[in-house]
Amino acid sequence: MIDELAHAGPEHLDPAFVAGYDRKQGYPDPAADLAAFEAHGLDAASVVVDIGAGAGQFAIAAARRFGHVTAVDVSPAMLAALRERAAAAGLANLDCVRAGFLSYQHAGPPADGVYTRHALHQLPDFWKALALDRIARMLRPGGVLRLRDLIFDFGPDEAAAVFTGWLEHAAADPAAGYTSADYAEHIRTEFSTFRWLLEPMLAAAGFEIVAADFEVRLYGAYTCVKTTP
Fold first, then answer.
1. What order of strands is seen across the sheet that includes strand 47-51?
2. Residue 62 CB: number of other CB atoms within 10 A?
3. In the structure, how many helices (H) and strands (E) does the chain have?
4. Per-residue pLDDT tens for 106-119?
5. Angle, CA of 213, 41 and 141, to the nearest 5°
6. What is the pTM of this model?
7. CB 104 within 8 Å of CB 97
8. How many other CB atoms sit within 10 Å of the CB of residue 137?
9. Nearest-5° angle of CA 132, CA 137, CA 140?
10. Cβ pair 72, 48 in contact under 8 A
11. What is the arithmetic mean of pLDDT over 16-39?
12. Residue of 220, 25, 42 lying closest to 144 (CA atoms)
């Protein structure tokens, strides 16, 4: 088994980086993700697992809507920030677990929903397929996976043009957003994959893709339902 901590990206282990993480991410609004779960029947009695939870932008909001949320992350610094926020919000139904896609052991009844945002790309494709299979196994039949990530919605021959445009529109200030250097490092050292490779992995894990939306051919948002027993 690979060491998921070694694939986490060293900045995510740095408390100084974590302190400014939400600002750099642009404070992503979880409303569409919560709505995707609710559209498939999740409610105040539902169990949700957030893998790669980061500082808790989704997990905190989800704990206010659903019965129980388990926030999973490999980074001690991220989990420390998340625990502090959960305590400040008085959320007794949110647990934090230090683990990753390949090491989290789900306890109790099967989950109704699994959420992950911008984390699966830390794994090479072979390990992504194993991670998706493990996610399917922790979900009940009909359970929902909401997956957001940097996923390439283009062919290899278009990569240079798409990446050039991506880098040209990057943030100038690293404290305010991701810079062209950040994006270039992502392309070189992380494992974002093509859409036409990821979608067969989802199918092989037993998921039906019920919605797939892309922004600038780079940022994918999938809603998937587990169809296998």
1. 94-98, 68-73, 47-51, 111-117, 139-150, 219-226, 207-215
2. 28
3. 9, 7
4. 999 999 999 999 99
5. 85
6. 0.94
7. yes
8. 13
9. 120
10. no
11. 87
12. 42
